[in-house]
Write a structure and sequence with these properties.
The structure is a single chain. The chain is mainly alpha-helical and about 80 residues long. It contains three helices and two strands. Strand 1, helix 1 (about 10-20) and strand 2 (about 25-30) form a beta-alpha-beta unit. The radius of gyration is 13 Å and the shape is globular.
Length: about 80
């Protein structure tokens, strides 16, 4: 699991809570979501570290979804919920 959000301090707290609950500490990174370059870089970094990428879960508005689509345009995007 790799967590990404704007606020790195909040990510750190969430990662620590997940560590307590699951025994595993997820990696995390704070990024500027208006930058498609940063989005693409974090996706590539995650693919390298994990040996692939099965799923990206987004909890966001339409703007961010379009930013992810621009960062990795060859992927198929499916909206759930």
């Amino acid at each position: 699991m790799f967590l990404v959000a704007r606020d790195e301090a909040k990510l750190s707290a969430i990662a620590e809570n997940l560590h307590v609950l699951t025994g595993q500490r997820p990696d995390f990174k704070g990024i500027d979501f208006s930058s498609t370059d940063q989005i693409a870089a974090v996706i590539q970094q995650t693919r390298k570290q994990a040996g692939g990428l099965d799923m990206i879960w987004l909890r966001t508005g339409r703007y961010l979804i379009s930013a992810f689509a621009k960062a990795i345009p060859k992927r198929r995007w499916k909206r759930c919920g």
